[in-house]
Amino acid sequence: MTITSPSVTDAGRRLTQRHADHPLRGIGLIIVSTVFLACSDTMAKYLGRTLPPIEIGWIRFLVFVLIMAPVVLMSSSASLLRSVRPKLQVLRALALVASSVLFISGLQFLPIAEASATSFVAPLFVTALSIIVLGETIGVRRWIAAVVGLIGVLIVIRPGSAAFDPAVIFPILSALAWAVTLTLTRMISGADRAIVTMTFSALVGFVALSALVPFVWVTPSWHDIMIGVLVGLASTMGQWIVVLAYRYADASVLAPFTYSQLVWVTFLGYGLFGEIPDVWTFVGAAVIIASGIYIAHRERIRRKQPPVPAEPYPSP
Q: Transmembrane region positions (predicted)?
């Protein structure tokens, strides 16, 4: 699951404007990233048959740390560990860990397509957090889109019916944690470089999960270790390609194509686990996706609007 939001800083906007001139390249990269992320989620579900979610997350972040280690070691200074807003970096990393572990927990009980469709509710949480944390003003149309997205979630999970599974709380909480991650990313983006954020994510995530994994440890087989390494590699590659994609196109252009991940997980879920999503999963997913695309569209319009000039003080 990868849903990103644009930077709200002027510097971030200027950087996007310089690079966002190859939308087809950006779209191609974002679609490739969803393939990697879908493979990561599918392998995590497969690994969940033998290992607990915290241990799977620990292996994932261990691979992340090993990938980042050469970058940190080759740095001429400790600049990659020096943050202007270290507390926010730590909170962001912990939210990222929570999102990862909660989603993997949901995969143990839910079809992968249903878990992925439910997790697409993250942009709706971002809308709400933008008001609470960032003090943004949200228009009526974006609120309506958010409500429509929640209706889509209800269509997927169908509370009160025989198809309802309480385990849907895991991808919903994962989406909330991911929304917190994105909101904190927006707060940090103007202060720290992206590589600093990635370093904090890797190290804090690995340390946090290392403190928890002894309580749930199951000795993995060599087969489990191999799959776990592939989970970490696929996840890291997917996230890295996302960063590349946003160099070539605006978030509002790429947002619709991030939902192509649902296509890949549906095929992989059927091929590996024999899971066939019912029609209501697709209907609910379509409603959620339409809501997310509209929210991205309204965000693009809001960003293009010139700032409202402050009212001049009345002359005495």
A: 23-44, 56-81, 93-111, 117-135, 142-161, 167-188, 195-219, 225-246, 253-273, 279-296
Paired tokens of 172: 């919903």
- For the residues of the chain, what is the DSSP string, one character each? --------SHHHHHHHHHHTT-HHHHHHHHHHHHHHHHHHHHHHHHHTTTS-HHHHHHHHHHHHHHHHHHHHHHSSSSGGG--SSHHHHHHHHHHHHHHHHHHHHHHTTS-HHHHHHHHTTHHHHHHHHHHHTT-----HHHHHHHHHHHHHHHHHH-TTSTT--GGGHHHHHHHHHHHHHHHHHHHHTTTS-HHHHHHHHHHHHHHHHHHHGGGT--PPPHHHHHHHHHHHHHHHHHHHHHHHHTTTS-HHHHHHHHTTHHHHHHHHHHHHH-----HHHHHHHHHHHHHHHHHHHHHHHHHHSPPPPPPPPPP-
Question: What is the pLDDT, as a whole number, of residue 77?
Answer: 54
pLDDT at 21: 64
pLDDT value at residue 279: 81
Which residues touch 19 (CB under 8 Å, ≥6 apart)? Answer: 247, 248
Two tokens at 82?
Answer: 């020096």
Predicted structure pTM score? 0.78
- Dist CA 205 CA 89 (whole Å): 11
Which residue numbers in the chain have pLDDT < 50?
Answer: 2-20, 308-316
* AA identity, residue 202: A
Q: pLDDT tens digits, residue range 152-178?
A: 877 877 765 555 678 889 999 998 998
Task: Burial-class residue 161 by CB neighbours within 10 Å (0-12, 13-18, 19+).
Answer: exposed
